[in-house]
Design goal:
Two copies of one chain form a homodimer. By secondary structure, chain A is of the alpha+beta class. Helices cover 48% and strands 16% of the residues of chain A. Chain A has six helices and five strands. In chain A, the strands form two sheets. Chain A has a three-stranded mixed beta sheet with strand order 4-3-5. Chain A has a two-stranded antiparallel sheet with strand order 1-2. The longest helix of chain A has 16 residues. The mean pLDDT of chain A is 88. Chains A and B meet through helix 5 and strand 5 of A and helix 5 and strand 5 of B. Chain A binds a DNA duplex through helix 4.
Chain lengths: 157, 157
Amino acid sequence: MGSVEKKIATIMRERGYKLTPQRLAVLNVVVDSEDHLTPAAIYDKVRHKHGAVGLVTIYRTLNMLDDLGLICQVHGHGDNRSYLIRRPLEHHHHLVCSECGKVVDFTGCNLCELERRLSEETGFEIDSHILEFAGHCRNCRNKAVKQDVQMLHAVPE
Amino acid sequence: MGSVEKKIATIMRERGYKLTPQRLAVLNVVVDSEDHLTPAAIYDKVRHKHGAVGLVTIYRTLNMLDDLGLICQVHGHGDNRSYLIRRPLEHHHHLVCSECGKVVDFTGCNLCELERRLSEETGFEIDSHILEFAGHCRNCRNKAVKQDVQMLHAVPE
DNA sequence: GTATAAATGAAAAACGTTTTCATTTATACT
DNA sequence: AGTATAAATGAAAACGTTTTTCATTTATAC
């Protein structure tokens, strides 16, 4: 068990959540993944790596991790299917490629000033924010250029 | 028909969309509302105000308006149910009360600098962003204070 | 080892949204 | 005005994702 997993396991125990094999399996998959995964994708990976676990349990475990503030979601992915997950640590946001779905994390959003202004203007007490950029990653842009060039060379009908 | 509706009707026509009574009914409800509405809420309002229209048509019309860039969504509302809609005009964002669901619009997000930095660092071409604040509106905060005071005065068991 | 509350999984339900397809209709063109 | 055509509609069914239910199992504390 990696150190991140151990840390999270401790948090779970402290908060009264039991450490079941299923939860540890989900945790392992989520922590191990470089990408942001959907519940369905986590389901698949867990089954391959650890054996049979119900999809319901995946959802329940994800809700638990969300309760604990240990996972995060991607919001603007295509038609806001609930896309999501990974990275327990620091405050960060996402940059999503609308074409291939690639997600890049970034930190340093610097919204405090704006948050202060809004709080003052509206009387809201602000607890959190969603910030997400969408665009086209270098890869997909290159592909697009290649296709255009091909079109240029194609025989006209 | 209000001037906003006329303007949108013109855009629809220009883009080859037909002006059906159903579409005009949806448009009317959306433009008239001060609040952000769900498809279901729009469905109800349309039926009360204009008579029978299929829910499917509501969805299709909303998709059309989205295509035209004339409506916008609220993302972080509770459990990212697709919450949404309204306001054809300028670039803006939302401040959402997690308690009562109230949505306040604001402008001036000033993310250009951050956008430039990310573009440079990642090679992404950024087309859009989601920014949304969540918190508690003045109303709900006052209510909470009142409840606390009541608790204080309650007879201990 | 035992008691207990919590967690699991299968099945069904719930939910919001989309597809299908036969019918109707807004628009463009006589 | 009358007609042709592609587009829009609505009912029903399908869809994918998530939640509920409930009987069974299990991690934890004693």
